[in-house]
Amino acid sequence: MAKRAGTSAKPGVLVVHVTSHGFGHMNRTVAVLNKVPAEIPIIIRCSPDLFPNWRERLLRPADLDAHVSDSGAVNPMGGSGSTDAAATLERAIAVYRESLPRVDDDAEYLRRVDAAAVLSDAPPLPLVSARRAGVPGWLLANFTWYDIYKPYAQDASPEAKRLVADLKAAYRQAAGVFRAEPALKMGWLPNQTDVGLVANPGRDRTKELRGLLGLGKTEKLVYFYVGRYGQDDLDWGRLASFASRGVHFVGYHAAPAGALPNLHLVSASEWSGGDLIASTDAVVAKAGYGTMSEAMAHGRPILYPPRVGFAEYRALDRAARSWGGGVPVASRDFAAMRIGPALDCAFALGRLKPPYAPDGAAQVAAHLAKLCRPAKGRAG
Q1: Is 176 helix (H, G, I), strand (E, B) or coil?
Q2: 326: which of 165, 192, 315, 352 is 20 to 30 A away, CA to CA?
Q3: Which pLDDT band holds residue 145 (cuts at 50, 70, 90)?
Q4: Is the pLDDT of residue 377 over 60?
Q5: Higher pLDDT, 380 or 42
Q6: How far is CA 86 from CA 12, 73, 81, 93, 156, in A?
Q7: Sheet with 302-304, side-by-side order of all strands
Q8: What is the 3-state secondary structure (H, E, C) of 37-77?
Q9: With 80 as the cut, is the pLDDT of residue 96 above it?
Q10: Per-residue model confidence (pLDDT) at position 375
Q11: What is the pLDDT of residues 317-360, one digit of tens each?
Q12: Please, is 125 exposed, middle or buried when counting C-beta atoms within 10 Å of its C-beta (0-12, 13-18, 19+)?
């Protein structure tokens, strides 16, 4: 790829790869891209299933291109708090086999579109393609699929063990790593830059939200999010019982059991997770990076159950407890929605300070913009 010279050259293209596993990675990456200057062209390569969500959350132009090279973890339908390790490895091996032969084609794609930098939020193979194309490829991560799959593969097939070794080697092809807190140590991964919290900004729209829901100033509002797949084992009736205590929940998904008097639904296109967190008194959610980091960034206490088979849960739980705003709830109590004492604890905490620098998205965006601008900004 020819290098640009002089100040009149156009910025190079930023090519972004985002895993199709859940919305947390997409939400984190969108926080970065919304801060990248508009004159820098962006191509987002991800599962087409996420296209509507990108269009909903992006505040700047970007081209969307269908491309899948990783598979994440397999969560049972209706049970987003656990992971099926065997199914996860089986699908990961199949996707890796299918994606590996395309690495050289993807490198040629980067040359063809005149890519100046690659950002990958979790998929490892785009980092290999970037290295082959001579383009700086940066990983944005608080964990990698190597960290997740390694314990699953210990007692699995030789092919699973080879997959884990291959993923480790692929991640090490990165020019650098934006380490987003709270994170696993990932000591095996070189060239890490700690950027603190990478979270979407949230507007405190409390007055507007309470007016929309027909609530006064005395009721307690809780952002309720149990993931893309939900949790069918929750005692939704007990959740409804909190209405008598003046506790109302707000989120995007209806209860499987039908409408509840104190579970209010809003449009994701009009209310981002950041806005809901900033406009409520506490959060009840599964412990994923996106929700946890936004709760931390906006200083809202968060109630969460343990997650079985998630390597990153330990890091998230440790950081939340250390911060003081994390209120863990036992699995049985969470399933039964016996969360009254935990809610009381959260409400008593009030608003807290973020435990890490909350400007990670701006830090990452600034570095990527420098890589994509001509002349001095083109080194990895």
Answers
A1: strand
A2: 192
A3: very high
A4: no
A5: 42
A6: 41, 10, 16, 11, 8
A7: 263-265, 247-251, 220-225, 282-285, 302-304, 326-328
A8: CCCCCEEEEECHHHHHHHHHHCCCCCEEEECCCCCCCCCCC
A9: yes
A10: 66
A11: 999 999 999 999 999 999 999 999 999 999 999 999 999 999 99
A12: buried
What angle (nearest 5°) sits at the alpha carbon of residue 101, between those of residues 98 and 106? Answer: 105
Q: Is 68 exposed, middle or buried (0-12, 13-18, 19+ CB in 10 A)?
A: middle
**Tokens 């005395």, located at residue:** 218
Peptide bond into 123 cis (omega under 30): no
Query: Distance between CA atoms of 181 and 253, rounded to whole angstroms?
Result: 28
Contact 168, 146 (CB under 8 A): yes
Q: Name the DSSP letter for residue 17.
A: E
Torsion of CA 368, 369, 372, 378, to 10 degrees: -80
Cα–Cα distance between 119 and 136 in angstroms, integer?
Answer: 9
CA dist 199 and 89 (Å) reads 29
Res. 77 pLDDT band, cuts 50 70 90: low
Closest CA to 228 of 205, 244, 251: 251
- For the chain, the distance separating the N- and C-terminal CA atoms, rounded to the nearest angstrom, is 14
pLDDT of residue 131: 98
Q: Tokens 């380490």 sit at which residue?
A: 179
* 3-class DSSP assignment, residue 303: strand
Higher-pLDDT residue of 307, 123 = 123
- Tokens (6 digits) for 180: 């987003």
Q: What is the DSSP letter of 378?
A: G
Q: What mean pLDDT comes out for the span 86-103?
A: 96
